[in-house]
# Entry
Amino acid sequence: MAETNTLSPDVYTRWRQSALGRITEALESKLVFELAGTLSGKRVLDVGTGDGVYALQAALRQAHAVGVDASPAMLSAASQRARERHVHVEFREGQAQQLPFENERFDVVLAVTVLCFVPDPKQAVREMSRVLLPGGRLVLGELGRWSTWAASRRLRAWLGNRTWKAAQFWTWKELAALARDAGLSLEKGRGAIFYPPWGLAAQAMAPVDSWLGHLHSPGAAFLAVAARKPGPKTMAG
# Structure
């Protein structure tokens, strides 16, 4: 997630061009897809797809990928990224709190740094559960409340940053409660990004970040949980 007042396709591009952004996004993505499991042949929905990075990665893992986002500008950028990479992804405009899909359509639903910005996170997770097949898996990746990143973002909000003033940060307990409220069974959770928001710190600590996540060390800036919808087991892996 880029440090800026306005989220736009250009923001994501600049974020990934920095050492901090490149390393951080790679570690977050690695964790999300580890929790998602094998995706080959599955129907995968990326909620709040932004410029499509997670939807494209799912498609490159041989999934039938769909990305949904409320921003036409983001969807245009996502479609352009897919064309440049010669990857097929279906992109749809829609809100996380009212997904434009029928019940029980997807094997896996991904939602990465989405709940931090939606007005009704509980309803959004219920919608994600609704479109999951029985036995399907939901992976939530969110901004952790107790980290140096969160402290920096709170300071930015206090100084008038519109993005972080509107954001909500999360704890493990809160994410688990959202999953249970939506009728899902929590499977596992891990953290990532244990370094402060500095490029040199990211470069130094990236090699041990995944190890710290396995230890459930405190201070993770990124929390990811996987939850299963009760019912016959799908190919979720």
User: Anything to note?
Assistant: Residues 9-228 form a domain with the Rossmann fold fold (CATH 3.40.50.150). The first helix runs from residue 9 to 17.
